[in-house]
Amino acid sequence: MKKTYINGVGCISTQKTFDTVFLEEAVVNHDENVLAIVPPAYKEYISPAASRRMAKGVKNGIVASALAMKDANVENVDAIITGTGLGCIEDSEKFLKSILDNKEEFLTPTSFIQSTHNTVGAQIALLQQCKGYNFTYVNGAVSFESALLDAKMQIEEEEANSILVGGVDENGEYTTALFKLNGRIKADNTAPYDVLTSTTSGAVYGEGASFFVLENERKESTYAELLDIAIVNTLAENEIEAEITSFLKSNNLEISDVDALVLGFDGNATFENYYKNLAENAFAQTPVLYYKHLCGEYDTASAFAFWMATKILKTQEIPEIIKVNSVSKSAYKTILLYNQLNGKNHSFTLLSK
Amino acid sequence: MKGVAITGMGIISSIGNSVEENYHSLIENKIGISRISNISTVHADVIKVGEIKKTNDDLIAELNLNSDNNFSRTAMIGTLAAKQAVENAGITSINEFRTGLISATSVGGMDMTEKHYYDYFEKPELVKYITCHDGGDVADKIAEELGLKGMVTTISTACSSAANAIMLGARLIKTGKLDRVIVGGADGLAKFTINGFKTLMILSDDYNKPFDNNRKGLNLGEAAAFLVLESDEIVEKQNKKVLARVSGYGNANDAFHQTASSENGDGAFLAMKKAFEVSGLKPSEIDYINVHGTATPNNDLSEGRALRRIYENETVPDFSSTKPFTGHTLAAAAAIEAVYSVLAIQNNVVYPNLNFETQMEEFDLTPQTSLKNKNIEYVLSNSFGFGGNCSTLIFSKS
């Protein structure tokens, strides 16, 4: 069975994560409940004429995938697998509003065409003329992990040698307002927003695109090996530790073998015990890290965490800004990522150097 | 390849509320295309649709949902079909083995979003529907109704979505990651989709006529179907009846245009070619092809060209599109057509391609136009979607 290596990464996020070494320019924004991406210089990747017509998510996906491929030093890939929670939501909003406002008349197809969830994956394929396997996963918080799992199976079964995998989501103005209404996003004017000390429900929202080149061989650009991914729809708070133990065991590892645990803390006090219990008990002696205070919460935020973990394994350094506790290790060989949303859609991802 | 066992099926479409009802409609030429009644739209007098003639209240009652439920129509028909499939497979303890659910959707709970979009801020009682919009909401709800706790995910590759859900499910069983997986898709009719297809000018104002020279476009439809796939170990251990097997699959991207297929059907050709490689079958071994056949000028030309390329100088086997019966049910299409493919194998029939009159001038391909009885060992089913997503599945006798 072939092993899976992460050989290139590209990340567009609410922090400056391109043209940087790692997170040296990162800042925590305590003032806003919806964070916007730091835009890259799109014109270096997409012609201005094409760029004007493209959805934000498509543009970010194209840039992040181009960065990842350049980083991995590959010209083309065998497959493209994308995860997205809401797809190009701005275009969905636009088309739906014009249907409602104009009573189903005078509509043009552009925003409908862009609104389909598979637009990002399709546009990357079109741009690269990649006729291979092309999937898009849309299952909330496990959208990106579904794509990863699929890619790993492809490589294990030797169906593909190199695969572009990514997670992408964009903020849409109306959807953001709806999420404030139903409590998914924290209420306006309740700053300072702090992820670890929050006592309210809801999260600070974000957006981003992170893409990775996964290949079946280790090479100079290799960041990490992807050991395993598990996706579980429903788990109670008190079942998480056992689930992690058995997941590690199936990879011949124990909790003490984990050199860093990356948790999806998003400031939603209602569900933070899923993370807190681990950080305070089973993993109290392990470096525990968080990231949603930097990138915000969104369905594919865990792809940002994946990017972070690959960077740690390559640089062997953990920036202060992502530390939950003060535990450190002399070397970082194995990293575990755990994420969930509202007690559903749990994912466990294991990486090693 | 021996193929992954299918042990259960469930379906609801405009031609029936169960597997049996769908089969009878197919062999008795009972079509489900009608005027739309559940959605108020300015296009109501122009378009014809494959609508399930049950209101949301009917579906709520059938599923026994309480009044504070927040099920979209898509989630309700999905749950009905998934429950049938699980029951048909004789599953009583859903988490007994490593069991997953792979669903497919095009627009998630858009049917609720579009209904309440501007009312959310005025009517607090509607706020519960906001989360329905999420693409994964349908699968989460089905999993909850089934009591399924394991792996759940959703694929959205437009009109090929459910084919990819079946493909992923088969691969999860083959690689031993799961023992059992419920695969399929659901899509309710929505104003959003109706108007989207309308702006693309690919909706017919008449009954759709796949592979006909004078075809004018598609009729949209709504449906849900799920199949249960199980490992051979479980089949043996529980002495399960195998309905048919998934013995080949292929996925490729046309990489031509966001919403149009290439004239030579590159993506379709590659998808079929891969499916043959995986199955180890030769094209000549296929007894029936359930074509994608949406009846848009573009699809049928592209798909026909791809078929000609696969079969080169050989005769193309009996083929038909079942979309004149059901309409194009988008993300659910490949799931309902998988059920029809299994039924074709079980009953040794080729369904008629209704409404066909005139052969297309571009090639000499004539679909089967009347019900035909013959031994069916292998069925090939195509599904293609926006974004160049092309998928092929091959089903075989158990």
Write a concise synopsis of the structure shown.
By secondary structure, chain A is of the alpha/beta class. Chain A has helices at 48-53, 56-72, 89-101, 110-115, 119-128, 143-156, 173-181, 240-249, 273-280, 292-295, 302-315; strands spanning 4-12, 79-83, 133-137, 162-169, 208-215, 224-234, 260-263, 288-290, 334-341, 344-352.
The total tally of domains of chain A equals: 2
Helical fraction of chain B equals: 25-40%
CATH superfamily heading of the largest domain in chain B: Thiolase/Chalcone synthase
Q: Flag low-confidence runs of chain A.
A: none
Number of helical regions of chain A? 11
Number of strands of chain A: 10
Query: What structural class is derived from the secondary structure elements of chain A?
Result: alpha/beta
Q: What does it look like?
A:
The complex is a heterodimer of chains A (353) and B (398). By secondary structure, chain A is of the alpha/beta class. Chain A is built from eleven helices and ten strands. A ten-stranded mixed sheet of chain A has the order 3-2-4-5-1-6-10-9-7-8, sandwiched between helices. In chain A, helix 2 crosses helix 5 (119-128). The longest helix of chain A has 17 residues, at 56-72. The radius of gyration of chain A is 19 Å and the shape is globular. Chain A starts with a strand and ends with a strand. The mean pLDDT of chain A is 97. Chain B is of the alpha/beta class and 398 residues long. Chain B has helices at residues 19-27, 56-63, 73-88, 110-116, 137-146, 161-174, 191-199, 232-237, 266-279, 297-311, 323-326, 333-347; strands at residues 4-12, 33-34, 49-50, 99-104, 152-155, 180-187, 220-221, 223-230, 244-253, 288-290, 318-320, 349-350, 372-373, 378-384, 389-396. Chains A and B meet through helix 3, helix 4, helix 5, strand 3 and helix 6 of A and helix 4, helix 5, strand 5, helix 6 and helix 7 of B.
